[in-house]
């Protein structure tokens, strides 16, 4: 039973590790942006996303065969999907940049990518301690940090889009591309907050 129990907690940790890798890769791409290498970088990002999917499927296969689980099976399913959504949303940012032929990166996008990295790093701490959530005191602190970072992302999104539409020199098609990209960046922060809130809800139900 202990081995089966750890499988899920190890799986959560493995999946959030892929989210962290995706966030770090996105930040590196934006900080050293070169549109000519985007096709290769998209393949690299998709490989991370594929590995996250594989881990999710592995966990679901085990869940389908087990009757007793460490937390409610519905919570395992929802949390697993929510973590996978983080990695999916990060990959989507890169897809938008590619689809809209974005040729340079705005400073605000770099700020967003830093927020996403920080959110994922805090969630990594959360899941490194999640197996012992009944006795751990560090999880709540990191959940709060993710919530705070998400609020910062909301403020950054509103300010950035407002400024973008006030720039007369920016062509309309470029504005569309950037708004779509900022939508995805905000979704990354939102999905991190969703995972943090799910964790907190699970802890409340089980303590």
CATH class group? Mainly Alpha
Q: How many domain units?
A: 1
Instruction: Give the number of helices.
Output: 6
Strand content: under 5%
Which secondary-structure class do the elements indicate? mainly alpha
- Indicate the CATH architecture: Up-down Bundle
Strand element count: 0
Major sheet: size, sense and barrel closure?
none
Mean pLDDT score: 95
Global Rg: 18 Å
What series of H and E elements makes up the topology? HHHHHH
Assembly form of the protein: single chain
Helix content: over 70%
Q: Which runs of at least 5 residues are low in confidence (pLDDT < 50)?
A: none
What fold name goes in the CATH topology slot?
Answer: Methane Monooxygenase Hydroxylase, Chain G, domain 1
Overall, the morphology is globular
What brief labels describe this structure?
mainly alpha, 207 residues, Methane Monooxygenase Hydroxylase, Chain G, domain 1
């Amino acid at each position: 039973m202990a081995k089966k129990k750890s499988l899920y907690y190890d799986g959560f940790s493995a999946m959030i590790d892929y989210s962290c890798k995706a966030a770090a890769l996105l930040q590196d791409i934006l900080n050293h942006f070169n549109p000519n290498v985007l096709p290769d970088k998209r393949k690299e990002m998709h490989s991370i996303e594929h590995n996250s999917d594989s881990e999710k499927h592995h966990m679901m296969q085990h869940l389908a065969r087990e009757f007793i689980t460490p937390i409610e099976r519905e919570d395992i399913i929802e949390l697993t999907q929510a973590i996978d959504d983080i990695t999916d949303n990060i990959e989507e940012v890169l897809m938008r940049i590619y689809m809209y032929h974005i040729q340079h990166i705005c400073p605000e996008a770099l700020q967003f990518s830093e927020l996403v990295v920080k959110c994922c790093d805090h969630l990594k701490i959360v899941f490194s301690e999640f197996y012992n959530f009944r006795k751990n005191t560090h999880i709540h602190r990191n959940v709060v940090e993710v919530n705070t970072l998400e609020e910062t992302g909301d403020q950054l999104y509103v300010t950035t889009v407002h400024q973008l539409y006030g720039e007369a020199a920016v062509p309309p098609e470029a504005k569309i591309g950037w708004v779509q990209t900022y939508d995805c960046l905000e979704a990354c922060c939102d999905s991190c907050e969703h995972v943090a809130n799910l964790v907190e809800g699970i802890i409340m139900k089980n303590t």
